[in-house]
Amino acid sequence: MNFYQHYNRLYASKDYRAEATVVLDLLTNGDGADCQRLLEVGCGTGSHSRAFAAHNISVTAVDTDEEMIASAQAAGPHDGVTFIAGPVEQLPPDQFDGAAAMFNVVNYVTDRTSLISMFQAVASHLHPASSFVFDCWNGVAALIDPPRNEVRDFLSDGWSYHVTMTAVTDPMRQLVEVSNEFDAEGPGGEAHHFSNRLIHRLWTPAELTDVAREAGFSSVHFMRWMVPGKQATAEDWKIMAVARRGAA
Ligand SMILES: C[S@@+](CC[C@H](N)C(=O)[O-])C[C@H]1O[C@@H](n2cnc3c(N)ncnc32)[C@H](O)[C@@H]1O
Q1: Looking at ligand 1, which residue's alpha carbon is closest to its atom 8?
Q2: Residues enclosing ligand 1, CB less than 6 A?
Q3: Distance from Cα 113 to the centre of ligand 1, integer Å
Q4: How far is the CA of 85 from the centre of ligand 1 (A)?
Q5: I need a labelling partner for 232 at 20 to 30 A (CA). Which of 57, 73, 79, 134 fits?
Q6: Each residue of 31-90: pLDDT tens digit?
């Protein structure tokens, strides 16, 4: 078993349902009736996708990582969700009532040209005056207080995990390399060792606002992670944003 097969257990403590509710409230100003068709970028194994679809909306969920999409499709029934492997830039023309990219998807995009291209693709798939909600590491907070190495032990669905995370920050390039080593032991005593490595770009809210405006969004509002009523500050390491598409 590799990272993909363990993914849902590794993140089982993440409250996808609560996140989906907050995202939909942000997309509809609290009135869920307005968002019937949602575009999700960076759906991973589909946990947000299923949580969105549980609100009786249809979800088109894309991820560039084919193994993630395969896990999403294998994870069981997904009524209301269409999973597509590939970049949002390659989606056929369509119009959605809102878009979301959750769990640091924008940090995976490490150069400005690619980020503009992703935001433009999202904007071009949105009805005028609809919104794109995303969350991310706050580059300002992370550059002041860079991610630290960490060792975590936890249990999930009968498995025990020992995770060693090493983070190397390059502040001048606003990049962090995160390497995770996982030791997993299953209910029957089976042992797996696997690893993953990712590079995250530490985008600041000012940079994200510039990119969003260049891509066709008229405004971006940053708030504390899962506290939509509180404006984000330089100390908030994890933030979320609503980018409003300009009116037609
Ligand atoms: C941390 S995972 C989050 C997955 C899922 N949203 C979740 O919360 O479990 C980030 C995902 O974003 C995807 N991703 C990164 N850049 C992307 C892009 N430009 N378009 C689509 N997916 C992207 C990665 O492949 C990865 O699966």
Answers
A1: 103
A2: 11, 41-45, 47-48, 62-65, 68, 87-88, 102-105, 108-109, 118
A3: 18
A4: 11
A5: 57
A6: 656 899 999 999 999 999 999 999 999 999 999 999 999 999 998 777 999 999 999 999
Which residue's C-alpha comes closest to atom 4 of ligand 1? 44
- Classify domain 142-201 at the CATH class level: mainly beta
Asked if the 3-140+203-245 domain carries CATH number 1.10.10.1450, the reply is no
Domain extents for the chain? 3-140+203-245, 142-201
| Residue range 159-217, pLDDT digits in tens | 999 999 999 999 999 999 999 999 999 999 999 999 999 999 999 999 999 999 999 99
Q: Please list, in sequence order, all residues whose beta carbon lies within 8 angstroms of the beta carbon of residue 126, skipping any fewer than 6 positions away.
A: 39, 95, 96, 97, 98, 99, 132, 245
